[in-house]
Amino acid sequence: MLCGVRTNSFKRLSNYIIQYGGVSRPTIGNYIIESLLDKNIEVAFGYNKVGPYSPIYQYADKHEDFNIVFDNYEKNSGFRALNYSANTNNMGVIVSASTIGFNNIMTPIGIAQSEKRPILLLSFFEPTNELKISPFPSRSKHYIKESITLKTSKDFVVNMEALISYGYEFPAGPVHLNVSNNILNDPVSVSVKKQTLAPNVVFAQQLCNMYMENDKKKRGTFK
What we know:
This protein is of the alpha/beta class. It is 39% helix and 15% strand. The chain contains seven helices and six strands; from the N terminus they run ααβαβαβαββαβα.
């Protein structure tokens, strides 16, 4: 069974490429926002002490139909995303201030995992300051279905779409995308053939299926 990676997940990107003759590409930062809007996700939740200074905020600010709601406490942002997911049956998005901030959102992330709510945790890092340890506290790793770190623009679109689709797959739950700030201004890298992005959809389905198979193996070890 293939993951539910939909062809229209790439609709905005496909239209952009066709419009500009298959030459121009949106940047990674713009694609993150466009991809969420494609899925009818019009709001994300973040920490106001750091959030407005995060590069992703600059991209979100350029989209009138997308908003990041900030809170004084990171845990509250997590609960807002959880409530958003529960009330809309859509994916809640948390923009985390830092890897250290993950400690503050463990409770809502844990609830999302137990209630099978799709949550996307977005974090951004400076390569020069990248932590040499796992981005999650060891005791919280089992709350996250999958966590990936992307340091280059290569296959960014496929990886992001596969990860989001996996978050929706039963049992739904939190997934984590950790992105280097250095690539947010890079154009997306995709496989384009005859003005279609079908190869990317297939690739994303295969990657998402791999996540599912790995999850089944992990679950098997607890039987």
